[in-house]
Amino acid sequence: MAYWLMKSEPDVYSIDHLRSEKRKT
Fold first, then answer.
1. Are 13 and 1 in contact (CB under 8 A)?
2. Is residue 16 a contact partner of residue 22, using CB atoms and an 8 Å limit?
3. What's the pLDDT tens digit per position in 4-22?
């Protein structure tokens, strides 16, 4: 599912993913 998100909006997905990882840590 992430693969299509990246194709749709890589910037938004990247930011969301990074934020999720940061919050997890």
1. no
2. no
3. 555 656 566 667 777 777 7
User: Rounded to whole angstroms, how far apart are CA atoms 20 and 10?
Assistant: 15
Using alpha carbons only, give the angle 25, 6, 1 rounded to the nearest 5 degrees: 80
Calculate the CA 12 to chain-centre distance.
6
Which token pair is 6?
A: 């990246």
**Residue 6 has what DSSP assignment?**
H
CB atoms < 10 A from the CB of 16, how many?
A: 13
Token pair in block for residue 18: 């990074």
How far apart are alpha carbons 25 and 6 in whole angstroms?
23
